[in-house]
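Q: what sequence does this backbone want?
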C-alpha cells in the first residue's frame, strides 16, 4: 500500500479524518489505512465506524493490526506506546 493511502490519526476533530478518508475513497482509492498511536486509537476506531455507517456503507473493515512501539522522549527515556492500523476497503 502506498503512503498516499494512509491517514494518520492525531488530535484533530474526528470529522477531519472522516473527510480525508471519504475524499480518498470517492477519488477511486480502493482501500485506506488508518494509523494511530496512544490515545488516538479510540479516535481511529470512531473514524472507521463513522465512515462505514454514515458515509460509505459498502466500506468494509479489513485487517486490523495492533502493536507496541518504543518511543524515546527528549530526556532520553524510552516508553512503550500502543499502536493500531485499520484497513478500510470498498
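A:
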Amino acid at each position: 500500500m502506498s503512503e498516499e493511502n494512509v491517514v494518520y490519526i492525531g488530535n484533530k476533530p474526528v470529522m477531519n479524518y472522516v473527510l480525508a478518508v471519504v475524499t480518498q475513497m470517492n477519488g477511486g482509492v480502493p482501500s485506506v489505512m488508518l494509523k494511530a498511536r496512544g490515545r488516538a486509537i479510540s479516535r481511529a476506531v470512531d473514524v472507521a465506524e463513522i465512515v462505514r455507517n454514515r458515509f460509505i456503507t459498502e466500506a468494509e473493515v479489513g485487517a486490523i493490526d495492533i502493536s507496541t512501539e518504543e518511543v524515546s522522549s527528549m530526556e532520553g527515556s524510552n516508553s512503550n506506546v500502543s499502536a493500531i492500523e485499520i484497513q478500510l476497503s470498498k
